[in-house]
């Protein structure tokens, strides 16, 4: 399915947008590219930097290697330079570039020499180019120097040309993403001249072997490489410009390249070749490793090849199955691959004679997909079998089981021998082979097939109990029997392998769905984290810890396994870095690989939500983490967890917003209540006074007296209101804790009644307080306020002549104080609502219920008691306060 | 001048309010009936010429009382409320109340509002006059003419409709909504800025000092009132 559409590719446009977006925040990278050491890259960089410095640019020489050359050192004069960090490693003091110091200083431009440098162990990143990446991501501009032979994809070519394999490599992506590349060129003759003058610093490694590297031919080739690299970069820029501006032109068809890697070291060459092909075609590419045995994990070598592909920008995949060619073609079709890159087979196996080698079959079955068969190079000095093969013990147990199966089959045959023909015995043996193939590995079951034929020959074929065969026809029987056994075992193993990988997929799917079910039914960050930790620990065999940030962005809340102590500062540091940068670090990654845990960020929609750490419990779990499919599963699990956390966070935020809105509504209600409660007495006072003035001497003395009383009463009502407001404010702010003493109740009631005397003039007040009532623990001032409010309510909301009863009793460790009346009763609705502050709002106003009852409840609560309202037996209203007798 | 021909109903659940209103109104010469609840108020409303209605009542909300009154009776209501919110006033006025006062209020103000209301009531049965003279302002509703100091003032049709409506409801608060409905039609709800702009132009034309109007008073947040007697 080739994309022959000539429209601008939306992916390309999106990619441009993303690129531009990134560019806005990213620092600018300028690379001074040279063909070999000694061409003057550092010198060129410093010279340019001096010009910048003259313009007043805030630059910092992060690390510059002058190798003692005086003219270079002269350029450093007066330039702000960063002291190197000193790292102790195996008794040596190593000096390294101090990444943290630069990030703290935040200069506009940093000079970092020798991009390909490998950092000493203990630095944050193993490679200097990773330090540079971090600087760029933090928005700092970086200038750096690079020799062309350090580019990853050119590694093989340079090794071919010069015979020197460079170990320090830089991914091509770094060069591709650089904002500008400056080629520092020097004719090879001049460079050799400088070399003889001793102006070129050479590292002391043997690989440089001095003169050898700097042969005229080598230099010419390297120069060509450098020039080409720069030219192809310029070409890319033109392309980017075209894509963005949609100039009418032919669009390169969307090519997708698939490279099939194996465990052999030559696969690395294959990977690099695919990378070059992909670059040339502007294509995306993927690397696929096919594991033929169903059991076990890919070998370390295969993984390192996959890693290399990933570093060079490929997506990596691992599939399991015996039929390599079919799997490759299926994968290629699924992923719309247009070209397959595969290595030339190094030998032929027995089966290839019948079926053709995998490569032959791939070429046959691939249809419209191009197949590039590339010679695996450089296998000579490396063993074909990976040296770091996982130490797998010889499967004694399986062979023993196979032997057992053959023995059992032989036993049965002995029992049958007198009654059945030999052909029937063969069937029994074949059943045994079937059983072996289903239960045991392919290799063992094939061995069992051979042993079966031998056992049959030895035990039953005349002459019995000898390997000799009397009738030549039996030889044909043996061959047929062996072939049938082998085919049977091959088919059974394949079915088993398919069942195994299906079971594995099924397991992964069920792990994921288990997790999502758990997360979906869980609320609250703590519980979500606990659920995720449980799952990850179970599925990945690791101790899992999770760190969540404080609002300030510092990782604080740590969730550890029960038996673990706190995290070390060093681990916290790694976690914080992961959180700040949103990238994984630690075990199996390129960053801080020395730590013993893998740290993964939890990506949220707005920001990183936290960090998950995994400490594998054993070597197997660690190996499993390296497998691409396990990593994808882990990523999916992390994504799900992050999503759940994100949803939870948003819910929390919505809740908080709702709460704030409620509070706002309450505040409005308070304002309205206070307005009402204040304005009514004010209106009465002002109105009465004005009436008095207006009426003057003409007023009857009774009218006059009534108006004057009105003023006095309303003024004291205002006073009580102010009192209430102040108290409720004090109680709410916590500045007024009740001052609890043992107080005789009648004292408080007496004082309250006294203060309310004018209001109670029209009401009958009856006291039902036993003479032997013990003193009750209370704050007398606050409780007087409560009684005042309750009695005032009773007086105000009942017609004159109503009886108000104050009662008290002690029992069950509490004192009960009741205020009841035989008036019209409480307003309809839930009596409990009366106590809710300002519940009354501004529509259904019943004057005075607003603040008074709210403060009553606040005070009684502060005493540890309760207050309830309800109807009395006589249809009036009744309020009951209980106060605990013992604190 | 005692005016015993009119009876005033005071509806307020606060005894303190009734306690000073009653003697004052009696001294003004009105007959006074008191009611503490909405139900009592509705029962007594037939006998009253003016109803002083508190919006916050224990049993029925003041607005419910207003709605329970027959529409022609609502015009006799002056709302007394502590509710400072303008939308409450607007709602009461839109329901048909004649006027409103916010507690605490001045008694002289109250007396003036009651007199204005009674004056309108007094002329309610008669054919409304088409000629009005307010000080130096002469308005001829039938002839669509307005004169200030004897000089013809030119008004646009909209301005004239606006002025005519205000004059017909002189001394009464008219809400933005009522003006919009009357002058612009019922589909113009929410377009209060129409009213503001035209009132502004009207003031420029008929008021000597538009910033301190003598007739076209603003009731902030509620509407306008055409005051007949310049104070």
TrEMBL record, chain A:
Q: Acyltransferase among the record's keywords?
A: no
Top-level class of the enzyme under EC nomenclature: transferase
Annotated Histidine kinase domain ranges read: 673-887
Annotated localization:
Membrane
Q: What is its main location?
A: membrane
Q: List UniProt keywords, sorted A-Z.
A: ATP-binding, Kinase, Membrane, Nucleotide-binding, Phosphoprotein, Transferase, Transmembrane, Transmembrane helix, Two-component regulatory system
Q: Listed GO cellular component terms?
A: cytoplasm; plasma membrane
What does the record list as coiled-coil region(s)? none
One GO molecular-function entry: ATP binding
Describe the reaction catalysed, as an equation. Answer: ATP + protein L-histidine = ADP + protein N-phospho-L-histidine
Enzyme Commission number(s) from the entry: 2.7.13.3
Name under which the protein is recorded: histidine kinase
Species of the source: Solidesulfovibrio aerotolerans
Automatic annotation (TrEMBL), chain B:
Matches recorded under PANTHER family: KDP OPERON TRANSCRIPTIONAL REGULATORY PROTEIN KDPE, REGULATOR OF RPOS
Q: Tell me which residues make up the Response regulatory domain.
A: 7-118
Which residue positions does the secretion signal occupy?
A: none
Biological source species? Solidesulfovibrio aerotolerans
User: What are the entry keywords?
Assistant: DNA-binding, Phosphoprotein, Two-component regulatory system
Summarizing the function annotation, the protein's role is: This protein is a positive regulator for the phosphate regulon. Transcription of this operon is positively regulated by PhoB and PhoR when phosphate is limited.
Among the record's GO biological process terms, what is one? regulation of DNA-templated transcription
Q: Which Gene3D superfamilies match?
A: 3.40.50.2300, 6.10.250.690, Winged helix-like DNA-binding domain superfamily/Winged helix DNA-binding domain
Protein name per Swiss-Prot or TrEMBL: Phosphate regulon transcriptional regulatory protein PhoB
């Amino acid at each position: 399915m080739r994309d022959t559409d000539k429209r601008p590719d939306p992916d390309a446009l999106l990619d441009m947008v993303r690129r531009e977006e990134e560019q806005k925040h990213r620092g600018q990278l300028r690379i001074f590219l040279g063909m070999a050491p000694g061409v003057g890259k550092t010198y060129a960089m410093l010279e340019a930097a001096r010009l910048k410095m003259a313009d007043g640019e805030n630059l910092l020489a992060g690390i510059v290697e002058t190798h003692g050359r005086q003219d270079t050192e002269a350029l450093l004069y007066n330039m702000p330079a960063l002291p190197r960090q000193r790292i102790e490693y195996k008794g040596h003091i190593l000096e390294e570039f101090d990444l943290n110091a630069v990030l703290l200083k935040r200069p506009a431009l940093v000079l970092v020499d020798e991009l390909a440098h490998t950092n000493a162990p203990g630095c944050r990143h193993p490679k200097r180019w990773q330090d540079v990446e971090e600087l760029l991501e933090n928005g700092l501009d970086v200038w750096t120097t690079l020799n062309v032979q350090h580019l990853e994809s050119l590694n093989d070519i340079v090794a071919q040309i010069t015979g020197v394999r460079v170990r320090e490599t830089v991914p091509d992506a770094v060069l591709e993403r650089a904002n500008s590349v400056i080629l520092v060129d020097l004719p090879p003759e001049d460079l050799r001249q400088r070399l003889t003058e001793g102006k070129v610093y050479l590292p002391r490694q043997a690989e440089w072997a001095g003169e050898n590297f700097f042969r005229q031919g080598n230099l010419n080739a390297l120069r060509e490489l450098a020039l080409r690299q720069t030219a192809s970069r310029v070409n890319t820029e033109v392309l980017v410009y075209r894509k963005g501006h949609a100039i009418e032109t032919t669009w390169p068809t969307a090519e997708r390249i698939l490279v099939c890697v194996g465990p052999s070291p030559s696969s690395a060459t294959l990977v690099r070749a695919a990378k070059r092909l992909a670059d040339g075609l502007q294509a995306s590419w993927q690397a696929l490793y096919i594991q033929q045995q169903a059991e076990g994990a890919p070998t370390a070598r295969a993984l390192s090849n996959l890693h290399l592909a990933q570093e060079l920008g490929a997506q990596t995949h691992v599939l399991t199955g015996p039929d390599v060619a079919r799997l490759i073609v299926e994968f290629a079709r699924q992923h719309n691959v247009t070209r397959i890159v595969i290595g030339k087979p190094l030998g032929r196996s027995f089966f290839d004679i019948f079926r053709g080698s995998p490569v032959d079959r791939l070429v046959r079955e691939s249809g419209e997909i191009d197949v590039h068969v590339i010679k695996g190079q450089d296998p000579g000095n490396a063993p074909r079998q990976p040296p770091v093969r996982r130490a797998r013990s010889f499967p004694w147990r399986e062979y023993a089981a196979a032997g057992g199966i053959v023995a059992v089959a032989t036993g049965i045959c002995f029992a049958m021998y007198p009654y059945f023909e030999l052909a029937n015995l063969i069937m029994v043996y074949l059943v045994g082979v079937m059983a072996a193939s289903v239960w045991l590995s392919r290799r063992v079951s094939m061995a069992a097939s051979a042993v079966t034929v031998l056992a049959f020959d030895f035990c039953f074929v005349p002459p019995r109990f000898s390997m000799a065969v009397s009738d030549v026809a039996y030889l044909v029987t043996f061959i047929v029997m062996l072939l049938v056994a082998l085919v049977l075992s091959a088919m059974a193993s394949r079915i088993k392998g398919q069942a195994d990988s299906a079971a594995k997929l099924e397991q992964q799917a069920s792990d994921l769905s288990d997790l999502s079910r758990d997360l979906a039914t869980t609320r609250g960050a703590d519980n979500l984290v606990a659920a995720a930790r449980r799952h990850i620990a179970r599925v990945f065999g690791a101790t899992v810890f999770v760190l969540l940030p404080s609002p300030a962005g510092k990782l604080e809340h740590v969730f550890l396994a029960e038996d673990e102590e706190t995290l070390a500062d060093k681990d916290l540091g790694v976690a914080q870095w992961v959180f700040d940068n949103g990238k994984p670090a630690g075990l199996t990654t390129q960053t801080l690989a020395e730590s013993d845990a893998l740290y993964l960020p939890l990506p949220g929609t707005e920001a990183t939500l936290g960090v998950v750490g995994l400490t594998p419990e054993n070597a197997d779990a660690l190996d499993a983490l390296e497998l691409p499919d396990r990593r994808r599963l882990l990523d999916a699990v992390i994504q799900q967890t992050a999503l759940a956390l994100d949803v939870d966070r948003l819910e929390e935020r919505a809740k908080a917003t709702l709460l704030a809105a409620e509070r706002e509504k309450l505040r409005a209600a308070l304002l309205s209540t206070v307005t009402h409660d204040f304005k009514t007495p004010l209106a009465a006072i002002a109105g009465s006074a004005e009436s008095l003035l207006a009426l003057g001497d003409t007023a009857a003395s009774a009218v006059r007296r009534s108006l004057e009383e009105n003023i006095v009463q309303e003024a004291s009502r205002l006073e009580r209101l102010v009192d209430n407001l102040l108290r409720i404010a004090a109680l709410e702010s916590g500045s007024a804790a009740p001052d609890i003493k043992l107080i005789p109740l009648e004292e408080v009631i007496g004082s309250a009644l006294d203060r309310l005397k004018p209001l109670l003039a029209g009401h009958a007040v009856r006291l039902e307080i036993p003479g032997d009532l013990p003193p009750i623990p209370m704050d007398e001032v606050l409780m007087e306020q409560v009684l005042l409010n309750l009695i005032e309510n009773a007086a105000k909301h009942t017609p004159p002549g109503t009886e108000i009863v104050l009662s008290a009793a002690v029992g069950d460790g509490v004192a009960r104080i009741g205020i009841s009346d035989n008036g019209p009763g409480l307003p309809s609705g839930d009596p409990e609502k009366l106590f809710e502050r300002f519940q009354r709002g501004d529509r259904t106003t019943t004057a005075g219920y607003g603040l008074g009852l709210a403060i009553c409840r606040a005070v009684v609560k502060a005493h540890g008691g309760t207050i309830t309202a309800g109807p009395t037996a006589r249809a009036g209203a009744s309020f009951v306060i209980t106060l605990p007798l013992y604190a | 001048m005692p005016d015993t021909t009119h009876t005033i109903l005071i509806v307020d659940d606060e005894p303190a309010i009734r306690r000073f209103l009653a003697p004052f109104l009696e001294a003004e010469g009105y007959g006074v009936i008191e009611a503490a609840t909405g139900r009592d108020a509705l029962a007594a409303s037939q006998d009253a010429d003016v109803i002083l209605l508190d919006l916050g009542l224990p049993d029925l909300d003041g607005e419910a009382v207003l709605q329970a009154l027959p529409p022609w009776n609502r015009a006799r209501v002056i709302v007394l409320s502590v509710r400072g919110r303008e939308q409450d006033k607007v709602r009461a006025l839109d329901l048909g109340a004649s006027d409103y006062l916010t507690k605490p209020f001045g008694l002289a103000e109250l007396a003036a509002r009651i007199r204005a209301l009674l004056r309108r009531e007094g002329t309610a049965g008669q054919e409304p006059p088409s000629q009005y003279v307010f000080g130096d302002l002469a308005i001829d509703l039938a002839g669509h003419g307005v004169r200030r100091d004897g000089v013809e003032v030119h008004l646009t049709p909209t301005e004239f409709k606006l002025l005519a409506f205000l004059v017909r409801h002189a001394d009464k608060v008219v809400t933005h909504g009522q003006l919009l409905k009357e002058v612009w039609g019922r589909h113009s709800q929410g377009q209060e800025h129409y009213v503001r702009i035209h009132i502004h132009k009207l003031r420029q034309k008929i008021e000597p000092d538009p910033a301190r109007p003598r007739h076209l008073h603003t009731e902030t947040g509620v509407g306008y009132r055409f005051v007949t007697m310049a104070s």
